[in-house]
Every structure is written in structure tokens, then in C-alpha cells.
Design a protein that fits this description.
It is built from two helices and no strands. By secondary structure, it is mainly α. The protein has a domain of 38 residues.
Length: 70
Amino acid sequence: MAKQKDKKKKNTKKKEGFFKGVRLELKKVSWPDKKDVIKYSLATLVFCIILVLFFQLLDLGLSVVKGVFN
């Protein structure tokens, strides 16, 4: 029984230490400001749209080629 209590205390201390470490690391993070978040989000959306268009055109081209050879 005493071993279980000691084990629980060790686990609790490990968890507390882990969360303290996480909190300290998050304080070190340099978070982007609103302007940067918007800029990077728009860049990501534009890139995704370009990829969608590329693959749609590729699919269309391959289906035309397949239709020619059938």
C-alpha cells in the first residue's frame, strides 16, 4: 500500500514537472502577430487553390489523352 502511494506521488510530481516545462517553453515562443497570421493564411489558401487547379487540369488532360487512345 505504501508503495502505491509513493508511486502515485512520483507520477504526480512527474506530471507537474512536465506541465511546468511546457509552460516555460510556451513562454519562450515568439507568437506571430495578427498581420502575419493573415498573410500566411492567405498565402496557404492561394497555394492550395493553385494546386487544385493544377491537378484538375492534369486530370482533364489525362482523361482527354485516354479518350483519344480508346
